[in-house]
Design goal:
Helix content is about 50%, strand content about 15%. With about 350 residues, it is α/β, with parallel strands linked by helices. The chain has one domain: Metal-dependent hydrolases (TIM Barrel).
Length: about 350
Amino acid sequence: MNTTRLPKITLEEAYEHPDNVARVLWDAAELARTSRGGGVTPEFYRPFQERLGEFDELRLASMDAAGIEHQIISLIAPGVQIITDPAMATAEARGQNDFLAEQVARHPDRYSGFAAVALQEPENAVTELRRAIGDLGFKGVLVNGYTNTTDPAHGRYLDDPAYHPFWEALCELDIPLYLHPRPALSGSLALYDGHPEMKGATWGFGTETAAHTVRLLLGGHFDRFPNAKLILGHMGEALPALLWRTQNMFDANPFDKKIEKSLPEYFADNIWITTSGNFSDHALINAILTVGADHILFSVDYPYSHNADGADWIERAPISELDRRKIAHGNARALFDLA
């Protein structure tokens, strides 16, 4: 561990099962398909794919150099959410959670896990959630956007009534759900015709996840589940900068929707954001002003962003030392009960 670095905890850090990594890297067509789904080129994606299935020398050395004491790891997007066969999705979630638990057990002081859940079968998702938290010791759950139905052109969002028992279990267990991006449904992709560079992290991921979150907010989801905890990456998927306008226009045009609090109040009570892959002073200062430093958590988005880049940035960001320490590690220690 680099003792000259500010201590840090990160929590949007991806993995892929090594067998899947090998399959993708071995098959050029599969690598091209996977890359296309994420809005990147195969040449760009290959080196990241090579790091996703590694949990020892490379990952730990990168953490050490950046002063990252602990990493909460989660399955790469779109994860089990893309599987259209419900039984297969449930089996995959269980298998991935068992695999991740094995990696965490080899380095328990350095790693924790976020559970994968197959919301294709909501009742089984509750069972797997309880197992992952109670038996495997995971710190929360990560869901990659909407969940596909048996028709791959359709998906269900997290406010679906079928998921209410799942949210009840989250609240009972007092654990957060990390809402991670994935590409929009195929029917929404016409906007990107001729612009594949827009589909992924460059633009589409953030807008899809922000819209998903606004759907929860304006639909009264956090009135229904006032103790729910939601985490958003990438400095809140631009929502801190848009809260005033969204609130203002909703007040003028609520249609049949009615919510009990203002959007900033829901952020204060129910939503945390991370810095994953968004190492911007301007975005951070805006987030502190709109969300508050207590609800901001340092993250990197490894391996898609570099640990050293994130570490260098948070250590020099123009914020108070108190806020820096909260964001780098203090808030995560409190939220996840980490030593």
